[in-house]
Amino acid sequence: MPLAGHLIELRKRLVLAAGALVLGMVIAFFITDPILDFVTGPIRQVAEERGKDLVGFTFSSVTAPFDLRMRMAFSIGIFLSAPVWLWQIWAFIMPGLTKKEIRYTVGFVASAVPLFFAGCYVGVLVMPHIIELMAGFTPEGAQNLYNAQDYYDFVFKLMIVIGVSFIIPVFLVALNFAGIMSGRAILKAWRIAILIACLFAALATPAADVVSMLMLAGILIVLYFAAAGLSLLFDKRKHKRQQEFLEEPTV
């Protein structure tokens, strides 16, 4: 296909992806109420413990409520339209891939997407505990006034960061597939991996929230060793195929 054909194809894919995103945003705009009610649950819990006069979910400007709903609609719309724009990306690059590369890419996406959403779910589980714990450090008589946009940014970024951390083991397996890292090399770095997992968990969760930190670090460590085990298995199969090829009689 000439360059002009690629550009036309790219424009077509971008238009379809953008259309799906807009549709997802429209749908998401009408379901922001239950989602907002869910993510502000920890604030109501803090309000019951400290008193409603000392805790509040605030908007700092006239347009802030609408701005928050638009930001929520955009982020939720990305998730809702993910099947469409992921397929458009895949459909654009697939013609240039070999059958083997297509098989590997499908396996990568099939592993990465569920792990990412699992990480986001863990972020949702950890988030209320973090907010309630941090509110416990508020001095007596002081107020906890949570700015709506800052609060939503905190929740959203926490989900994204933990979601991305969950797919790092998939990248390790992909590097093993590409021949860049062996399974033995991945496993050999287990001490560094555990240290990084613990440091990441400590940064992603408050220092005083030991339970959430240990839970997150434990999941990341298990995923790392699972990636190392899969890489070792793939290396073993690759070595076996090489041995069989070398032992084949030549004519």
Automatic annotation (TrEMBL):
Membrane-spanning segments: 14-32, 72-93, 105-131, 151-177, 189-208, 214-234
Keyword Cell membrane (UniProt): yes
Pfam annotation, one family: TatC
Recorded coiled-coil stretches: none
Record's subunit section: The Tat system comprises two distinct complexes: a TatABC complex, containing multiple copies of TatA, TatB and TatC subunits, and a separate TatA complex, containing only TatA subunits. Substrates initially bind to the TatABC complex, which probably triggers association of the separate TatA complex to form the active translocon.
InterPro entries: TatC (IPR002033)
GO MF annotation terms: proton motive force dependent protein transmembrane transporter activity
Similarity section: Belongs to the TatC family.
Keywords: Cell membrane, Membrane, Protein transport, Translocation, Transmembrane, Transmembrane helix, Transport
Naturally occurring in which organism (per UniProt): Microbacterium azadirachtae
Cellular component GO terms held in the UniProt record: TAT protein transport complex
Gene Ontology biological process terms in this record: intracellular protein transmembrane transport; protein transport by the Tat complex
Main location as per UniProt: membrane
Location(s), subcellular: Cell membrane; Membrane
Membrane topology: Multi-pass membrane protein
Taxonomic superkingdom: Bacteria
Primary role: Part of the twin-arginine translocation (Tat) system that transports large folded proteins containing a characteristic twin-arginine motif in their signal peptide across membranes. Together with TatB, TatC is part of a receptor directly interacting with Tat signal peptides.
Name this protein carries in UniProt: Sec-independent protein translocase protein TatC
